[in-house]
Amino acid sequence: MKTNKPKPISVSILMGLIIIQGLSGISGGAGLILDPSGKSMKIPISWLDGSPFSDYLIPGLILLFVLGVFPLVVFYGLLKQTSWSWPAALMVGIVLVIWIGVEILIIGYQPRPPLQLIYGTLGILILVFVWLPSVRRYYNFGSA
Hints:
The chain has helices spanning 9-34, 57-80, 85-107, 115-131, 133-138.
């Protein structure tokens, strides 16, 4: 469904935000899977006290696939202007904001390192750019 429409800068920014999330999700997820204790990533296991998890393996798998691989697939869809790419990009933003919100509910806000702030902001930025009229027009998702 790719067209020859000129790509607005807002689309390029959205694609950049999505690929940043995908690459960091793969990196963080792989790190947690390879060392579920969190020690190699300097994440205390005590943060999981009171959570449904005894180590970081399951969160790492979720991070790897849902917030790593999926955003990279979405990036490809955005690049090729597929019919599913706009709703999928919206889903990346929603899932990231929910992930950070649930993480804060489970382990509390952790200012050091400020990853919750960074990725919460990234999720909000993805949502803002997805809803921009120029992005919606480019992907034929609304007449805005």
